Hints:
The protein has 147 residues and is of the alpha/beta class. The chain has helices at 4-15, 32-42, 64-76, 89-102, 122-132, and strands at 24-26, 47-51, 79-82, 107-110, 136-139. The strands form two sheets. A three-stranded parallel sheet has the order 1-2-3, sandwiched between helices. The longest helix has 14 residues, at 89-102. The two termini are 12 Å apart.
Amino acid sequence: MSLLPYVRSALRRQLARRDVELKAFSSLAAGADQLFADVALSEGVPVTAVIPGMDYYEAHLGDDEARATYRRILSSCADRVDLPLQPTHEKAYFAAGRWIVDHADRLIAVWDGRPARGPGGTGDVVAYARRIGVPVTVLWQAGVHRD
């Protein structure tokens, strides 16, 4: 069962609100972060790229397709925030997640509810948002399990 069509549709519904001015923040990581930014841009929502503080972030995004998507989306972003260098990649990812939560009215998370795969993952960012009182909308399709 593929999660992608469900998530894309759910993101469109979340970002189609026209009763408030929306802004989107994303670290543009491969996967859900890039999908979120892409959908936001297609819905006319300005995106701020929040770049984790690590050496050459783009090189850590995975394959050539993910890096090309990163560059394409980044060139369409309204703003860019480059975060200070962190001692580890995990701390850099978590710092980016915290920055996003600290600047957001709500967090939309593509998350299966399981613990983060590593420090600074989605589960940690969701827990941080909940801890400080930022509302969280979790998008996940019942019956789908991550690898």
